[in-house]
Amino acid sequence: MAEQIIFYILAAIIAVFSVMAVTSTRLIRSALYLLFVLLATAGLYLLLGYHYLFAVQTAVYAGGIMVLFIFAILLTQKPGERITPEPLKQRVLAIVLSVAGIAFCGHIVYYNFNRVYSFVKEAELPTKQLGMTLMGTEKFQYLLPFESISILLLACIVGAIMIARKR
Amino acid sequence: MGSILENFTSGIIPMEAYIFVSFIMFFSGIYGFLSRKSLLMVLISIELILNSADINFAVFNRYLYPEHFEGFFFAMFTIAISACETAVAIAIVINIYRNLNNVEVDSLDELKEPEASDEK
Question: Which fold, A2-125?
Fold first, then answer.
């Protein structure tokens, strides 16, 4: 019961703040709403029992990416500046498209969802097994993607410095 | 909707509830991507879309294959990749601001820099 209440609170936070994040007229506020959405998503991972994913989401998304966003907003906007609203036609078109999409997907999911899933209650993921899976080289183990991600991060650091440096 | 309300007290959270939450997040991201003009708002919308995909990975893994780790690791790698993507995109945005003095999508009609004076 408590899990249900926590889930519906988190779902309401995500629904309200993700709509507010894309409709706000001040950039810094929409970055703040995005932060709320990301933290509520981390709460969802905690509710699913994925504690490590919760930690990664909080540290990387809510920590790192939000700092990048806030720096970029402060570097490119004047403080307190409002964005001029977009033309009505463009907004109405986008609203129609997204409402149609949500209705379509909701219809498919609601009518065609087989109830074959089983939520195993006490299946806590042991962190040792996670580490073994991340570092192993056998079948269903993930050393190669891990190394590819590390090379991608290196390339991204070099690329970001190359793009943004002063000439 | 009735089944969701029926399950409200029965102990487990239905899987569709998670999927609907990620739908709302995804389509508000789509709305922002299509309607906003500032490059940073477009980036924020992309973050929302990627985040809803992460929720889907984790939920499908937890409910359908609780003994496997595929969705878990794909969600984790997606988080790392989106961190890379945001860093590079924000570097590009700051470079655009340095050249054009705004970050509106409409003002980006050529890729080449305005003058070649800074080439060495």
Answer: Four Helix Bundle (Hemerythrin (Met), subunit A) (1.20.120)
